[in-house]
Design brief:
350 residues; mainly alpha
Length: 350
């Protein structure tokens, strides 16, 4: 038991180091390369507000690091961590190993809501209006998938739920396309495409605090509910027999996940497959205990999306590829692999 606990702590330390390394790596690469040593020295000086390392770089390098690349990389980490946690929560409440916000259509719903606000002119009211639109679209989509896919909670069929999610996702994607087609100017079209394909290029320091606070709040709530999540995997009837308020727990999880997804979509657009890939990779290494899985997914999701965004920025410089394309290229084959498996348990067995 002690050996297993030490192994888990060692894994968390390794992942934390990899997250820090990926942040420095992500800041270094871009249209112009900045040596990782320079990035590291600058960030340490900035963090401690002191000249610990001698400044041997030009002033404009500081602007590129701090004003442009650092907020983008941190938003990548926040978004990746948030989507991975939402994937863990959705796979738990649906008891479905291939559920994630993108496949169940919730990201498409959030994207439609955000685009509707932009096209109808509500974006002039600021970030809150877009987030509200994204939240409404995500919640509507989630309710539809739950009602149709589970027959009001009576039938938890993997195939039925996934097919319902794909169908609802297609409907909301079509609504998004209609909204884009009806746009009155090119700025609205560009904004709508941004939310449809995903991008981290609009990251600014002033806007990062909201998704960060939402992420940390929902991570804390999820960890406090970790034992309840473990019990939920045994089935609703078993959970009720053990005295758990299943409906209340599921409502908290669904609302929390929807709120976090809507905030992330309002910031970055629709980015798929993170919530599918990361939890499965983490289950392989740390098992199915949600207390461990949530922390592991939190760190791994951040690392994963930072690497994807670095690829998106450096593949065809100076242009950025929409990050949704990169995650879909990786996630699509992974999804097919998961469908092709005849058996799968939440413990990671084949």
């Amino acid at each position: 038991m002690l050996k297993e606990k030490n192994s888990y702590l060692f894994m968390l330390i390794i992942l934390s180091c990899l997250l820090i390394f990926s942040i420095i790596l992500g800041i270094s690469f871009g249209t112009s390369y900045i040596p990782m040593k320079t990035v590291y020295h600058f960030l340490i000086n900035k963090l401690f507000n002191s000249e610990i390392f001698t400044i041997d770089w030009k002033k404009n390098i500081e602007s590129i690091i701090w004003e442009i690349r650092a907020p983008r990389v941190l938003l990548s980490a926040i978004s990746g961590s948030g989507l991975a946690i939402c994937g863990v929560l959705m796979q738990c409440i649906t008891k479905n190993p291939i559920a994630d916000p993108y496949i169940l259509g919730i990201s498409s719903g959030a994207s439609s809501g955000a685009v509707a606000v932009i096209i109808l002119g509500g974006s002039s009211m600021g970030f809150l209006s877009i987030t509200s639109g994204a939240f409404t679209g995500a919640l509507l989509c989630g309710i539809l998938v739950f009602i149709i896919g589970t027959q009001y909670g009576k039938n938890i069929s993997t195939v039925r739920l996934i097919l319902t999610g794909l169908a609802v996702s297609t409907i909301f994607s079509s609504i998004t396309n209609i909204l884009v087609y009806s746009a009155k100017n090119s700025n609205q079209v560009r904004s709508a495409v941004f939310w449809s394909m995903g991008s981290l290029g609009r990251a600014r320091w002033g806007e990062i605090s909201i998704p960060f606070i939402a992420l940390m709040s929902i991570l804390l709530i999820s960890i406090l509910l970790a034992k309840s999540l473990d019990i939920l995997l045994l089935g609703d009837n078993t959970a009720k027999m053990m005295g758990m308020e299943v409906g209340k727990i599921k409502t908290i999880i669904i609302l929390s996940s929807t709120l976090l997804i809507s905030i992330l979509v309002a910031m970055t657009g629709s980015i798929g497959f993170i919530g599918l890939i990361v939890p499965h990779i983490c289950r392989y290494f740390c098992g199915s205990s949600h207390k461990r899985l949530l922390l592991c997914s939190f760190l791994t999701g951040g690392i994963f999306l930072i690497i994807c965004d670095t690829i998106a920025r450096t593949m065809f410089p100076p242009r950025d590829i929409p990050i949704g394309i990169i995650t879909s290229i990786i996630g699509g084959p992974f999804f097919l692999f998961m469908i092709g498996k005849n058996r799968y348990s939440f413990g990671g067995e084949k």
